[in-house]
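::Encoded backbone::
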Amino acid sequence: MIQKIFLIACIGCVVLIASVTSAETSVEERSLVFRNVKIFNGEDLSLSELSDVLITGNQISRISSSTIDVDDDIRVIDGKGNTLMPGLIDAHFHMMLAAAPLSVALAGPEGYLNLLAAQEAEKTLMRGFTSVRDLAGPVFSIKRAIDEELIVGPRIWPSGAMISQTGGHGDYRHTNELPRSSDGHLHYSEQVGGAAIADGPDEVIRRVREQLMLGASQIKLAAGGGVSSNYDPIDVSQYTEEEFSAAVAAAENWGTYVTVHAYTPRAVQTAIRAGVKVIDHGQLIDEETAKLMAKKDIWLSLQPFLDDEDITAFPDGSENREKQLLMTRGTDTAYALAKKYKIKTAWGTDTLFDAKLNERQGAQLAKMVRWYKPGEVLKMATSTNADLLALSGKRAPYQGRLGVVKEGALADLILVDGNPLENIDLVADPEKNFLVIMKDGKIYKNIAQ
C-alpha cells in the first residue's frame, strides 16, 4: 500500500513539474535533414566525409555523402561541417539520488524528491545524455512521466531498489532500528523503493520479483562493501553464492540479468560464479579476477573515480573517507587490467547526493583520456554502453538500436560545434558546444545558426 501511494504521489509531482517545463522546452516532432555534417557513427574512430542525414519519425532513415533532396516543408539544419554523433549514454546513474543530499534522500519528503529528480532529468538530457542505466532508486514514475512526455528527460533503464543483505551497502538503517520488528516495519528507504533488504535465497527471490513487477529492466544487488554506507567495511563480501544464484535465476526467468555493486576480488568472483553478468565498479580487482572476467565474458561497468574535483569527499579521518581513498587509489589499476585483458568495459558516473557534481557529467567523460584515446572514450559512451543496455533483452523499455549513427537506428543525436575526436573537452561544456540535442527524433535543443 505504501508503495502504491508513493507511485501515485510521484505521478502527481511530475504532472506539476510538466506545467513548468512544457512552456520552456520547445519540442519539434517532424522529419528533417542534417546537412553538411561529419559523422562520428559511434563505432569507427574517425569522422566521415561531409554527409547528409535524413530523420524520418524517430529513426535515421538515410545517410548519404551526396545531397539528400527533400520537399520544401521538410526542415533542413545546416551542420556547417560540424560533428553529428550519437546521444551519450551513462551506464551508472541515479536519477532519484544524484541531486538530493544524502540527508534529504534518506528522509524525503517524496514529493520534493520527485520534483528534484524531474528537474535533474531535464538537465541530464540537456547535457546530451539521451539514455541512462539507473542503478538504484524509485525512478519508475519519473521514467513513466518522461516516456509519456509529461516532463523532459533521457530514456531510463531502471533497476528499482538495490537489493542488499542486512548490514550491506543498501542498508541505511540506524543500529537502534535493529533487530527488524516482527510486524515487518520497513525503513523509509525501503518504503519508497530505494532499497530492499533481503536475507536468504527466498527473500532475495521475492525482492527481485517485486522489482521486475514494477518494471525493472535489470536487477542490482550489493555484493560488497561501499563507500557511502556506514556499517560495511569496503573489504567485506556480501551475499553467498546461493543467494546470488537465486537472484540470477529469477532475473533470467524474465529474460534479463543481474549486476552487482562490488569492488574487491572476493565479492566479484563470488558473484561471477553464481552467474552475474555485470560488475559495477571493480576498482580493487586483481589480476586473477580480471582474467576470470575476460574468460567468462563479464562486463565491467567502471567509473573514473579519482580523488579530485569530481569526488564527493567525506570528512577527513572518517571511515567513509578512508574507504573512499582506498577505492580511488585502485582506479588506475582497474583500467589497466581492463585494457590488458580486453574486458568489455562500460562507462558511467555514479554521481550521488551532489547536484553540482552532476553538472560535470560531461567533464567526467572527458577525463577518460587519462586511460583512452578520445575516439575510444566516445565509443564507450555510445555504442559500447548501448551494447550493455541491450543485455536487458525483452525487458528493455525501448525497442530499436541506440548508440550509433546508422540507417535504421533510433534518432538520438547530438550536433557538436567542432570535432570531439580532436578535442574531447567539447563534451565537458554541452551548453556551449552542443548545438542540437535530439532524442527519439524530437529536437530538445537547437542553437545551430
